[in-house]
Amino acid sequence: MAMRPLVAAAFAVLALSLGACQDGSTGGVPLRALAPVPQKTLALMAHKGMSQNDPILIRAYKREAEMEVWKRGTNGQYALLKTYPICRWSGQLGPKTKQGDRQAPEGFYTVTPGQMNPNSAYYLSFDTGYPNAYDRANGRTGNYIMVHGTCSSSGCFAMTDESMGEIYALARDSFAGGQRAFQFQSYPFRMTPTNVAKFRNDPNAPFWKNLKEGSDYFEALREEPRVGVCGSKYVFGGADAAAGSCTPKVEPMVAEKRDRDNREIAELIAKGTPATRLVYDDGSQNPVFRGQQTPADTLTFASLGKPEPELPYNPKDYAQHKLGEVSRPESLAAGEREIEVDAKGRPVMMAAAPIPTKAAAANLERRGSSPAAKPEPIVAEPANLSPAKPARVMVADADGDPAAYKKVLGNLFSNGTPATPAADAATVPVVAGAQPAKLELKPDAKASHAAAAKAAPVKSAHVATDKDKVATDDKPKPASDVKAASKSTQKSAAATAGPASPKTTGSTTPKN
Hints:
By secondary structure, the chain is of the alpha+beta class. It has helices at about 5-15, 40-45, 135, 160-175, 195-200, 205-220, 240, 250-270, 315-320, 330-335, 360-365, 400-410, 420-425, 445-455, 480-485, 485-495, and strands at about 55-60, 65-70, 80-85, 90, 105-110, 115, 125, 145-150, 155-160, 180-185, 225-230, 235, 275-280, 335-340, 390-395, 425-430. The longest helix has 19 residues, at about 250-270.
């Protein structure tokens, strides 16, 4: 009974507009904010030995586009209740740093009853609590970063209306049960040794390593970590961390997990796990909303050749959810790109195969092997006297591919010089065969007979260089130029020219 005034006061504050991604308010408390938890979820609680009013904790993962709701049992430990697919998040992996950067925040946040917004223009919502003390200590700006309904995001976590209604009801009931605030943990990805090894050279890696300390505490103990800020870093632990200690006690189970993960990370790196980073046009969404589990353009090094993991939710259920107007669908179509980077986070170029040296060829001969046969020269089409320019094979690089990650990250990896695909490309010269020049005879009969009598030798075809212009005029010659030649002249020209050069088909430049 003593909690009723507190709950009434909390819902009075809920009527205030909080602005979910510039959210609006319709006034009053709509019925959707009072809707009960679905019976199916209540049955799941009963199956797992949970109570409707037990405290909750929420964890979100950007790359996996999943949000978990955990419930605390009578033993003080949290257990996973349910996982919800995220319909939309925007920006890139990494923390939010300033107002308007479209980044969804990463870190540890606190949500109170006053941050719940039943009057959201995006169905229902709650404020994540960004910026927190850590964000402010690092000079980060922005506010009103929400978890809300409607599949549209400009820095928030957007769920479907059905999912948001259920999450909102779970939080509402936990507050009614006496929980004063719940913790909202936001991660770039699941903090597994595999992910830490892969993204070790990302510019955000030191920050993510700090987040993993809090994740390790929760996963080892299944208890909510107390969070403090020391300088510009998070500090996690028990009561001593909450009291402001910069060196809180590390529980044995937490230390054991960290050591185990560090050994696995070192082994993965030693085995050659490539350092990569992920790039998006503008965030992503869970694949269940795209009608497929693994789009072809989101395959990564870690998933090659491995079976798809079993999802903690039924894709068919969420395929029926109404998404409304999804924000920036064209950026979703591009998918995520995983780029290999060096120790400084710069893209690694794929080196061409080494060219065998004379010493290597001699070594092959001594072993009784012969070096690989040289490829047949590519002969230009005999339609023109000048063969085409050398074909260029474009190397996948940062500067030459503005449609990839550079258009998102700007000049982060730029070497300071403008992008010139022609200069950055590897050139494969086109070797022209001894192409005979065609005799063009004037319709003058005397000149034709004189040319036939002399039968002058034909000059070799001119081989074009990079400075030559490629001929673009392929119009046929006048019929009079062909008919004027006598049969004797044709025979003489054919004898001089020798056998015709073979034609080649297809392009010498592979498609990217």
